[in-house]
Design brief:
It catalyses: a quinone + NADH + 5 H(+)(in) = a quinol + NAD(+) + 4 H(+)(out). The chain is 38% helix and 12% strand. The chain is an alpha+beta fold and 258 residues long. Strands 4-5-3-6-7 form a five-stranded mixed β-sheet. A two-stranded antiparallel ribbon has the order 1-2. The structure holds FE2/S2 (inorganic) cluster.
Length: 258
Amino acid sequence: MTASSGDVSGSGERVFLRLGPPPEEPNQFVVEGAPQSYSPDVQARLEVEAKEIIGRYPNKGSALLPLLHLVQGEDSYITPAGLEFCASQLGLTSAQVSAVATFYTMYRRGPTGEYLVGVCTNTLCAVMGGDAIFAELKEHLGIGNDQTTDDGSITLQHIECNAACDFAPVVMVNWEFFDNQTCESARELVDSLRAGKPKDPTRGAPLCGFRQTSRILAGLRDERPDQGQGGAGAATLAGLRVAKEHGMEAPTAPEDQS
Ligand code: FES
C-alpha cells in the first residue's frame, strides 16, 4: 500500500491520503490451494491453443489479454500456474503478467462459479433499480459481493457501466446482457441458473459456463448458434429513428484543407 501527502488545501494544513486497492478487492492472486503449475497434459493442450492465438498478432506480447482469458478458462480465475504459463509463452516475467492482470476486473482473483452474475450499479443503472437488484440478489442468494454460492453455481458481483445504459438496469451473466431488469426478474434469472435451465439473454448468444465463456473471449471457436441475436436494440436506435422521422441529417464533413 502506498501513501501520499501534501498541502492540497492551500491553507498550509497537510492532507494525508492513504492509497491502495478498494477495501473489497481481494489481494493479489493469493488463493490457498491454487495450482502453481499445470500437468504435462494440460500444459501441452494449452500450448497448442496459445500458439494459435499468438499467431494472430504481429507482436506476441499483444496476445497477453487473450492468453489470460485462456488460462482463466482453465482454472476459472487467474492462478500462479496461469500467470507463469502466460509469461513463459510470451517471454515476459510473472510480475509483468500480474501487473496487467490486476488492472482489468474481468480477470478474476478467486474461484468463479458456473455463472458470474454481474449487477451494474454504476450511476444510471443504480438509480433505475440496479442498487435494489443487487441488494435483492445478495439477500436471495445469501452471499455478498464477489462471493459464490455453496453449490458453485453463481458468483455475484457488482459491476461498472457495461455501455448498455439505454437498457438500464442491466444484469450480465457471463458477460451476456439481461436488459431492463427488475428485482423479480433478476430473482427468476438466478433461480433459472441454479436450476440448470438458464434463461436466454435479451441480446446475444445462449449462455454457456464461465470457463467456456473465458475460452471464447480468448478467441477460441464459439460453437453457440448465431441467430442474429446481437446488434443494437430499439432503445439504442431511438435517436436515429426520431432523426429519420424529422428528415434530419448529419452535416457533411468540411473539405480536407491540408
Ligand atoms: S450505467 Fe449500467 S450499463 Fe451504463
